[in-house]
Amino acid sequence: MKYIEKFQYITNDIPHLTHVEQAQNACEAGAKWIQYRCLTKADDELLNDINAIAEICDDWGTTLVVTNHIHLNGKADIQGFHIEDMGADFIALREQVGEDITLGGSANTLENLVRIAKEGADYAGLGPFAATETKPNNFPLITLEQYKRITDELRKSALSIPVVAVGGIKIYDVAALMQTGIYGIAVSGAINFADDFIEAYQDFYEAVKF
């Protein structure tokens, strides 16, 4: 069973902090899982970022997961990939990266979750919970009742996959979300745009863990 962190921090393209600065801040705040999400750079720039973040993560004992860009596997010290394409073939992806790499996928429905779980994804990000400018998309929002129903159905089906809520989550949403039976939470904007990055990270971490 691979290690999947309950509180996952996601970097993003923002004006006031580079991805590397975001990763450094998150690690200083205690992050054990960083998802590098950059869809705007060429491969050489991506690798520059990833190598710098990998060094930071190595210093702090933090897992580094890269959004998409699975073609970079083996070119940097990457522990996992998160694939946002909800139609992705996880059987083929697993064959491509091997068994040691962590593979996560995005889902918006129970059907999405069941399929990627059966195909061998190690965890799933289920969302969006709320509207977010960090990752614009046209998928319907998932209510607390739907999170609970989906996790209940997964449990009944005996399919074991950690489900992480994602999308526009604020600190005041965490307690109710965790009560639905989901495994954890992923956050980007609520930390990146907070007045105090480290304090915001630690508030989320404590809310998710306890």
From TrEMBL:
UniProt keywords, alphabetically: Thiamine biosynthesis
Phylogenetic lineage: Bacteria, Pseudomonadati, Bacteroidota, Sphingobacteriia, Sphingobacteriales
Pfam families: TMP-TENI (PF02581)
Domain of life according to the entry: Bacteria
Gene3D superfamilies: Aldolase class I (3.20.20.70)
The Thiamine phosphate synthase/TenI domain, residue ranges: 10-191
Pathway: Cofactor biosynthesis; thiamine diphosphate biosynthesis
PANTHER family tied to this protein: THIAMINE-PHOSPHATE PYROPHOSPHORYLASE, THIAMINE-PHOSPHATE SYNTHASE
Protein name: Thiamine phosphate synthase
InterPro entries in UniProt: Aldolase_TIM, ThiamineP_synth_sf, ThiamineP_synth_TenI
